[in-house]
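@channel anyone free to eyeball this complex?
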Amino acid sequence: MSTVAGAPPVAVAGAHPRRHPSTFTVYRWELRKLISQKRTYMGLGLVIVLPLFFVIFQNVHQRHDRGAENIFASQITQSGLATPVLMLLFLSVFMLPLAAALVAGDVVAAEDGNGTLKTILTRSVNRGQVFAAKTLAAMSYAALAVFLSAAVSTVAGVISWGFHSVTTFSGSVVSAPEGLLLVLASNAVYLIPLMAVVSIGVLLSTVTRNSAAAVVGTLGVVILLVIVAQIPGLEGIKPYLLDEQFENWHGLLRTPTDWAPIIHSAWVCALYAAPALLAGYLVFLRRDVAGG
Amino acid sequence: MPAASSVEEAPPVRARGLVKRYKEVLAVDHIDLNVRAGDVYGFLGPNGAGKTTTLRMALGLITPSEGSVELFGRDPLREGARALDGVAGFVEAPRFYPYMSARKNLELLAALDGDDARSRIPEVLEIVELTPRAKHRVGGFSHGMRQRLGIAAALLRRPRLLMLDEPATGLDPAGMRDMRLLIRRLADEGITVLLSSHQLPEVQELCDRVAIVDSGRVVYEGALADLRRQGGAGYRLRTTDDGRALEIMSARRGISHAQAGEHGLGFQADEADVGSLSLALAHAGVGILALTPELATLEDLFFRLTETAEHEAPPPPAAAAGEEAQLVQAR
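replying in thread with the prediction:
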């Protein structure tokens, strides 16, 4: 700044009210921040590599005696559309929640730790906007992880075993285009419990102010509920546990479509997500930002 | 929401009875601040005095345990981002996204500022001389470059009030000089500056009004010139017979702290007593070779105010002290 004296004058604002940015603008920049970080790609890499690894492994070690296994496992080499269903089955319990938790648990805590939260909170955006944008960004990321995994599984499966009709859980055969739609719909329905996981992650990220604790804590909640489901005598609460909702999409792969588990999971997941988001929002609104 | 006219007329910063407690620790203890439009206001205090906590409360980053603060008549806690219109700055070191370039960081902040902030990016980069490094990642920036980027980010908002927390900390001498020049220039252009610092020469050079805090309390708020006068109107005297002059001074009322030093005699007195002393010296046949007023330095006063165990008042207030200068007695 050795020539500051000769630098152009700095225009000073008048007292007119400033035009403040929309929440969508804040959300867009949250996405750009995610895109700019290497760690964002860790979770995405995981959900891409695993389906590829699965397909390659199946191609190398082809087995045809799968009659007693899952119906989609038994037709893995008959239709490429069985692959995304199987992958959703495998990844839905831990890997996709892990990918979602990696970002949801980090989204507030990392900024708090780096001190950038105070940077953005001294601009022309309200805390509510920032919280909403961060939550939406974490949810968008989780959705991207799910559909990326589905896309990679589908493409890899179809390349390996063709775009053929597929048999659903109820034994009825659906055409390949209809099967593809069901794959998409299944992944979309799976987002319901995953958004609840994201909500818990955002809450923990806001409360703990520590990325690692929030990520581990989010997964801890999921694992804890799996353990609770195994405790004898607690069968009654099983339908209301979050991990049980990870299978809600099975209803779509039956003929006729079984909407009951989907509707059930929607309100059960809302019972997890809404209090978590509300608590996270209130904490974020009132917290002291002194980090960094 | 306050009416537009009252907001426009309201002072840039007005804090009343600010208190911040962290469990048993009282970080800020009933602080009042009055920053007026056009001030370059120094906010001084030793480490841990409560300066940064006060600035955080002013910017709405933390909630006061008691009291309130208004920026141009608006409370950041009640009015959120709206209260920060026309306000910019940073608390502690400015923080950026290390994985983004300087320009990308400014684009992000401009997006969060709304208005025409984005169009000002080249201009503010030019002001802080970071244009050649605009495409470089902030992660590789030196401390000084980040401080400059912090100023650039603040200027994006076309502030009427600039709140800077230790802006020269960690800068080399040239960087400190440039920072002072920049702040001076911004003040000359009409921006009110609240400068938190413990760089006393910087404050003495830049600021016209100061608040000195210690242990969470304001021990002085007012014009810097008044403070220096309150610190004692000191004089340095050289005569043809310093020994005789010292005898005469010691015998006169209104002359205090008379002592011989390496460069003559030093004493404190108000102007009227100095006048009568000069006549008395002449009457006694002692010639005056030099009589020069010496104001206490800010550093002297700062240490007197902050190192007095009981926070007692500094040396006797001079009669010339301004009405608005408030010497806050220890409670």
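from a first look: The first helix of chain A runs from residue 23 to 36.
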